[in-house]
Design a protein that fits this description.
The protein is 20% helix and 34% strand. It is an alpha/beta fold. The strands form 6 sheets. Strands 1, 2, 3, 4, 5, 6 and 18 form a 7-stranded mixed beta sheet that branches.
Length: 423
């Protein structure tokens, strides 16, 4: 490991999931000297272990499993000759100047120091752990995150347990409830602290209702008990402030607890660079080409914002590559003025955070609470669409044209208004 290898690139992509693969493919297609770094032994990220359908409906106009979805990108990588390294641990990123960044990487062949004009950061997200959601009690065997349980079942063919309680109703947790049921395990309940599900409604129907798995909304697991193995959990009903309601406690016997309490963008390397972070998303603040507050560093996929569709992750990877191309050709992203994207009524988050008005832009947003029969509006540009329902788990997509955005003078505001709403 004493060998030091130095190379120069136009683009270094960090992270070999769908966003990173899409970015590397697009950057290579655009004629940029590109390399993709992945710290695992194989490329593909989470879709590689997703044997369920629901992928590709937006991007390929087909209903694919995660494995089928990602293999289509493997084929494109091979066809155009994308350069990549697996088992590559990125130790640090250095910002030298406007057109030079350094990515220090440990590989099987030695230490790799890559000098690059741009970086596309696509390392994805991490799962929230038991310690982050305030569950006390014993710490015996039988406690897994949803991703760990999925890896055990779909990659290694190991059934983690037979009597299962799932904490949190995010999409991975819902999908794992179905996987456990299909393998003959008993899913005792899915426990959700919010008064509404955390995952897509289609997954609530297909993964829980179709299998008669109870979903307990406005409930929380407050403790786990067990000696060598999990034996039971204590559940309590919570009020509107998420405080336990005395006298509502009850126990569920189980041998396995799966934590599906949400994801957070994995941005450790970027935080060391003091990149501006949006507290609402947990990821970096970006302009319409997904460039962060540090020139030439772009971010895409779940490292930017937790997406509900892998298709959107791929689109972001491609957009970041196009941004890198523009950055390199112009020694920066040209724009007369960056206008902020503001969050109006019932909008919890929105990306990108800044637009120029000089390009067409896709804005993705999430609401703070569920509502039915509403308009999603951007009043500054005259945009208004009707939605039968909006939910926090499902992203709202707004495709705004350059002509429309040119009407905005200082900012644009995304807001949700009920039909009966009066200002």
């Amino acid at each position: 490991m004493s060998n030091l290898i130095e190379e120069r690139y136009d683009v270094v992509v960090i992270g070999g999931g769908p966003a990173g693969i899409a970015a590397a493919i697009r950057a290579t297609e655009l004629g940029l000297k590109t390399i993709l770094l992945e710290n695992r032994d194989v490329l593909g990220g989470i879709p590689l272990q997703c044997v369920h359908p629901g992928f590709g409906l937006h991007y390929f106009k087909e209903d694919l499993t995660g494995t089928q979805f990602i293999h289509r990108f493997f084929e494109r990588m091979e066809r155009i000759g994308v350069e990549y390294i697996t088992s590559a641990h990125v130790h640090s990123i250095e910002y030298r100047d406007y057109m030079e960044k350094v990515v220090n990487t440990i590989t099987r062949k030695g230490v790799l120091r890559l000098y690059s004009k741009t970086i596309i950061y696509t390392v994805g997200a991490r799962e929230r752990t038991l310690f982050e959601i305030g569950v006390v009690g014993d710490r015996p065997d039988g406690i897994y995150t949803a991703g760990e349980a999925q890896t055990m079942m779909d990659i290694y063919g190991v059934l983690p347990g037979k009597d299962v309680v799932i904490i949190g109703s995010g999409d991975v947790g819902l999908i794992m409830a179905r996987r456990f049921a299909l393998e003959g395990a008993r899913v005792k309940a899915v426990i959700e602290i919010m008064p509404y599900p955390g995952g897509l409604m289609r997954n609530v129907v297909q993964c829980l209702r179709d299998f008669n798995i109870p979903l307990l909304l406005s409930h929380a697991v407050i403790s786990i008990a067990g000696k060598k193995r999990v034996e039971k959990v204590t559940v309590v009903k919570v009020d509107e402030g998420f405080r336990p309601i005395p006298g509502t406690e009850f126990e569920i016997a189980c041998d396995t607890v799966v934590i599906a309490a949400g994801l957070r963008p994995n941005i450790d390397l970027l935080e060391r660079l003091s990149i501006a972070i949006d507290p609402a998303t947990g990821g970096p603040m970006v302009n319409e080409l997904l460039e962060t507050s540090i020139p030439g560093i772009f971010v895409a996929g779940n490292a930017l914002v937790i997406n509900d569709l892998a298709d959107y992750v791929v689109e972001q990877g491609e957009k970041a590559a196009e941004g890198a191309k523009i950055f390199i050709e112009n020694s920066g992203i040209p724009a007369e003025e960056w206008k902020p994207v503001k969050r109006g009524r019932n909008i919890r988050l929105a990306i990108p955070h800044y637009i120029s008005g000089e390009r067409s832009v896709t804005i993705l947003a999430r609401v703070a609470k569920p509502e039915q029969r509403v308009f999603v509006e951007v009043p500054e540009v005259g945009y208004k669409t009707f939605h039968m329902a909006v939910r926090p788990a499902e992203m709202i997509r707004l495709d705004l044209s350059k002509d429309a955005l040119s009407k905005a003078e200082k900012s644009v505001t995304i807001e949700v208004k009920p039909i009966a709403y009066r200002a």
